[in-house]
Design a protein that fits this description.
Blueprint lengths: L18 H12 L12 H5 L6 H28 L1 H4 L9 H4 L4 H21 L2 H19 L7 H20 L6 H25 L2 H7 L8 H25 L13 H16 L7 H7 L1 H24 L1
Length: about 325
């Protein structure tokens, strides 16, 4: 049967989302894999040799929860702001907000609740930790608005986000902030940031990548590989110096046993980035590569054990 020329045209079908799919979309929008980065708040507790103090463990756990809530709220706010651009991106268009599986109104409510919860926990831990959380928000917000468009400044801004997590963790449990914590966190996070840029350039033609993010126009894979090698070398040297120079390590230098694990972890990461062409998502590498995950877990267990028992028998 032919339609009459005056027959009304049906509206496009609306996206129907089941309650289970909606919950899945919300969970995905929170980006729980990104919470691995917030594990840096526990570093101060471990390397100050206070990881057997239950009260401090509780405070560090609350600090971790606060950063998870605040960082997830930031991801939601960014996705709301970039929704129209994400719809045009080959992969970001599948994100819950851009795809329509998570309504913008509900996303605003969730982000607001997470922000209030995160900062409520932050202020409960004390003003210094709350200030660190504010600094983190300012760094991530300014990165999204400005710094990600500035060559080299963009990778330092990413690194600053990691450093502020580690510093905030030390502040939360009220332990001294070791200069080694600064140096090793800065160098390690720069490797991640530079590898992320390398992956972004490699995954797209330089013209398209530059149009999406102006700073990428000034990077090349070769240049970034040079920077990654320099930073990786410096990070291994810095950690090696820490194992026999820091004040709180065992005096018999037994912490040097952990150096091979650091070397393997760095080498494996560089292999995944430069040979396998990965690196765009460090949390995906850690969760997806069994060898890297095992190396990290063994390193953490061995380091904690040597710090705890090594000081008693050295």
């Amino acid at each position: 049967m032919r339609l009459s020329p005056t027959a009304p045209v049906a509206d496009p079908p609306t996206l129907r989302v089941s309650p289970g799919s909606r919950l899945s979309a919300i969970f995905r929008e929170l980006r729980p894999k990104q919470w691995l980065k917030n594990g840096l708040v526990f570093l101060g507790l471990v390397y100050a040799l206070r990881f057997t103090d239950l009260d401090l463990i509780f405070r560090a756990t609350v600090a971790f929860a606060a950063f998870c809530a605040i960082s997830s709220a930031g991801y939601i706010f960014n996705d709301i702001r970039d929704m129209e651009l994400d719809k045009l991106h080959p992969t970001k268009r599948f994100r819950p907000i851009a795809s329509g599986r998570l309504p913008v109104g509900l996303a605003w409510v969730i982000a607001t609740v997470l922000s209030l919860t995160g900062f409520g926990l932050a202020f409960a831990l004390g003003l210094p930790f709350a200030v660190a959380c504010v600094a983190y928000v300012l760094i991530t917000a300014s990165y999204s608005l400005w710094w990600k468009h500035l060559v080299l400044i963009d990778v330092f801004a990413i690194s600053a986000g990691f450093v502020i997590r580690a510093v905030a963790g030390a502040v939360a449990v009220d332990v001294p902030i070791s200069p080694w914590l600064y140096v090793c966190t800065i160098l390690g996070s720069l490797i991640i940031a530079l590898s992320k840029r390398r992956s972004e350039i490699q995954d797209a033609a330089i013209e398209d990548a530059g149009a999406h993010r102006p700073a990428l126009e000034h990077y090349t894979v070769t240049f970034l590989d040079h920077l990654i090698v320099i930073t990786a070398t410096a990070s291994v040297m810095a950690y090696s110096l820490y194992t026999f120079s820091a004040e709180n390590v065992p005096k018999n230098h037994i912490m040097m046993v952990t150096i091979p694990f650091v070397l393997y972890g760095v080498f494996r990461y560089l292999f995944l980035v430069q040979v396998r062409g990965l690196g765009g998502s460090p949390e995906e590498l850690l969760l997806g590569d069994r060898s890297l995950a095992i190396a990290v877990i063994l390193f953490l267990i061995l380091s904690a054990g040597l710090l705890f028992f090594g000081n008693r028998f050295s």
